[in-house]
Amino acid sequence: MAAAYDFDLFVIGGGSGGLAAAKQATDLGAKVACADFVKPSPQGTTWGLGGTCVNVGCMPKKLMHISSLYREVQSDAHGLGWETKASHSWETMLANVNNYIKSLNWGAKTDLRTKNVKYYNAFATFVDPHTLTLDNGKGKVETITAKYILIACGGRPSVPEAPGAKECCISSDDIFWQKKPPGKTLVIGASYIALECAGFLAGFGFDVTVMVRSILLRGFDQDIANMIGTYMEKHHCKFAREMVPSKFEKLPNGQVKVFVKDAEYGIYDTVLLAIGRTGCAGWLNLEAAGLEYNKSSGKIVCNDHDQTAVPHIYAVGDVIQDQLELTPVAIQASKLLCRRLFGGATKIMDYTDVATAVFTPIEYGAVGWSEEDAKKKLGKERVKVYHCSAQPLEWNLNHERKEDMGYMKVVVDLAEKEKVLGVHILGPHAGEVIQGLSVALKAGMTKEHMDDCVGIHPTFAESYTTMTEVKEEGMGAPKKG
Ligand code: FAD
Ligand code: NA7
């Protein structure tokens, strides 16, 4: 008897979530296909298989961040006896980063072929709840059916209403592929993509200003957000506070004139928008599947089993409403979903206490609640905050860094034997440090566990094992731990 559907699972989107789902499902014996198609950015940038993380997100961002840190590392090295200072080539970095990304695109495609996942380089839209059309953009249109459909189409950078924004500005979809050095740059937005991009551009020596509408790093611990701002300001990055652009105009020489309240604010070689991201659900003709989505966020509501309002249609990753937009989150949710669909498993995604890092020039790693969150959720009386400042050893010998400080904060619940609710670290390799602490936090660590732990000397992170100072209400960072 012929199968009722062409595929057991059809995945829309070959990014972090989609590829993980396709591979997990096929490993469990399902007949799987995946469509990935990249619509060019308004500036015409496009890329290969692998989604945001690989092409225009985590990977190029982290490589450029690491590259930019070498400026400070060289200055530290000077204090340790090294004489020379090297110069940086945007063009060389870009060519090498782009070639590396292309190798990842190739690897992703080979992976699908090896695992017998049918890959369509085509744009998918719904015809009915079990049927999709696949348009390869070159005249080939196919129709397929699937028992289960997984929407993993991610999101794209939002564009503000201000006239000229679309024509004059670039976004994170462009900067990692832009062959020309960006020059004098205005970054608009103050969340982590904005600050990370501003940070690495300033690190390369470009003249960079960040235009901030309200606060830095909304949703993150605000003491630390402000310390990042102070550090970046000291390290070659300017901030224009409480401002939004009202208009953009392209000048004949290609530069962009930026207006605030319709008065000229400045002229820039590059204006980079990083004002958040919009889900791509609006592209899928979801109405044909009987599925609704949030028209302003472009996202889909799912239950805790990743299931949409149409039971055989699921969604994971950045396209889900009100969830963390992070690669490992999309991957984990996808794998667990496919194990439930095809492997008889029952475990669902746990979105709590997911560790994250902000790769600003001084890195920030966090897991669990911020001080603000903890006090809002439990009340001020129940929350105690330990903190300390510490200086990485190598900064001590660099006279330009005498004032630079790292910082750590541990938020605990007084009603639960000082169970740790949140850990925050600001300093070198914060992402690496917080990853280990996130396991401990997940396992129910208390402050006593931290105190009982013997530190590794001399490291920056050892300060976690010796924290005694309690943060009083309204207190800033202590001078030195
Ligand atoms: P995506 O990876 O975006 O994949 C979706 C794919 O579907 C895309 O290829 C898209 O073109 C395709 N598609 C869309 N519609 C269709 C359609 N109709 N038919 C076919 N294909 C379609 N996360 C971290 O964990 N750490 C970081 O350091 C980090 N840094 C970031 C830096 C930047 C600048 C950005 C933008 C993001 C960063 N992220 C980071 C977030 C991370 O990249 C995303 O959370 C992750 O890629 C989401 O995966 P996804 O599978 O949901 O979607
Ligand atoms: P976020 O986290 O959504 O933050 C958006 C930032 O842009 C934030 O600072 C906003 O300021 C600011 N914003 C939003 N709209 C505007 C307008 N119209 N004008 C000026 N500034 C604005 O975005 P990101 O891009 O950093 O990250 C998105 C996700 O992608 C993130 O979770 C990653 O995991 C991947 P506000 O604080 O609202 O005043």
List cofactors, ions and other ligands.
flavin-adenine dinucleotide, ligand NA7
| Count of strand segments | 22
Our measurement of the CA-to-CA distance between the termini, rounded to an integer number of angstroms, reads 73 Å
The poorly predicted ranges are none
CATH topology of the largest domain: FAD/NAD(P)-binding domain
Number of helices: 13
Which descriptor suits the 3D outline?
globular
CATH architecture of the largest domain: 3-Layer(bba) Sandwich
**Whole-number mean pLDDT:** 96
Cα gyration radius (Å): 24 Å
Helix content: 25-40%
Give a quick account of the main beta sheet: strands, pairing sense, barrel closure: 7 strands, mixed
Task: Please indicate the percent range of residues in DSSP E strands (runs of 2 or more).
Answer: 15-25%
Identify the CATH class of the largest domain.
Alpha Beta
Structural class: alpha/beta
- CATH superfamily name of the largest domain? FAD/NAD(P)-binding domain
Task: Give an overview of the whole structure.
The active site is at 457 (proton acceptor). There is one protein chain. With 481 residues, this protein is an alpha/beta fold. It folds into three domains: 7-157 and 278-343, FAD/NAD(P)-binding domain; 165-275, 3-Layer(bba) Sandwich (FAD/NAD(P)-binding domain); 362-464, 2-Layer Sandwich (Enolase-like, domain 1), CATH 3.30.390. Helix content is 30%, strand content 23%. It has helices spanning 16-27, 51-56, 58-79, 90-114, 165-168, 172-175, 192-203, 222-234, 327-343, 371-378, 393-396, 430-442, 447-452, and strands spanning 7-12, 32-35, 118-120, 123-128, 131-135, 141-151, 155-157, 170-171, 185-188, 208-211, 237-240, 247-250, 256-260, 263-268, 270-273, 277-279, 313-315, 356-358, 364-368, 383-390, 406-413, 419-426. The strands form five sheets. Strands 1, 2, 3, 4, 5, 6 and 17 form a seven-stranded mixed beta sheet that branches. Strands 8-15-9-10-11 form a five-stranded parallel beta sheet. α1 (16-27) links the parallel β1 and β2 (32-35). The longest helix has 25 residues, at 90-114. The mean pLDDT is 96. The structure holds flavin-adenine dinucleotide and ligand NA7. Ligand NA7 binds next to α7.
